[in-house]
Amino acid sequence: MPAAAIYNKDLDVPINDPEQALAVVFGVKDSIKNVQDQLVDWKDTCPAPTFPCDLSQALNKTSTRVSGPLARSLPTLSDAYGADPYAVQDIIQSVSTSEAMLKANNARVKVDFDGPAEYLALVDTSITNLLNDLSPDVVEAGRKRYDSCDLSVPPEAAGDLECRLARAVFAGARSGGIG
């Protein structure tokens, strides 16, 4: 099974369970940190003009572990808990902007490690603000579900999306690509 399929499976199917949607958001937050760390590392280890690293990894991880899961989970937070739909849309738009920058990096038009990391930081801060507007009990239930994931299971093994995200970050798994 291609690695991307474990994150992109049912991409058009919303996560209707509000607690799972919150758990997925915590998985996304860890995934954002993972991509940011990779971009910071590349500033020192992936020099121009040859860029010897696999620049597609940051875009693939962002698309499969941030963008897709957010698109499936954030609308549920609006419906179930009254999360601000405009904040949800801003988060999704900021992720799209990050992806556009990373796509330009792949083309090696102008490789920029700072811009995508800054936009991902904006996404992370916006998610934190959105979570702060929800009931602490609700957020804690989502966090507890995310924290209960068994990290000893391989990332490509079947399971709930939030656990596949947690296992991928924990294992330092490469993204297999999109599609």
Average pLDDT confidence is: 89
The ordered H/E elements are HHHHHHH
List the domain count as a whole number: 1
Q: Biggest sheet: strands, sense, closure?
A: none
Helix content: 55-70%
- Specify the structural class: mainly alpha
Query: What is the number of helical segments per DSSP (H or I, 4+ residues)?
Result: 7
Kindly provide the radius of gyration, computed on alpha-carbon positions and rounded to a whole number of angstroms: 16 Å
Kindly report how far apart the N and C termini lie. Answer: 12 Å
Beta-strand content estimate: under 5%
Overall 3D shape = globular
Ranges where pLDDT stays below 50 over 5 or more residues in a row are: 1-6
The counted number of beta strands is: 0
Describe this structure in words.
By secondary structure, this protein is mainly alpha-helical. Helix 3 runs antiparallel to helix 4 (85-106). It is built from seven helices and no strands. The protein has helices at residues 5-8, 18-45, 56-81, 85-106, 114-132, 136-147, 161-171. Mean pLDDT is 89; it is low at 1-6.
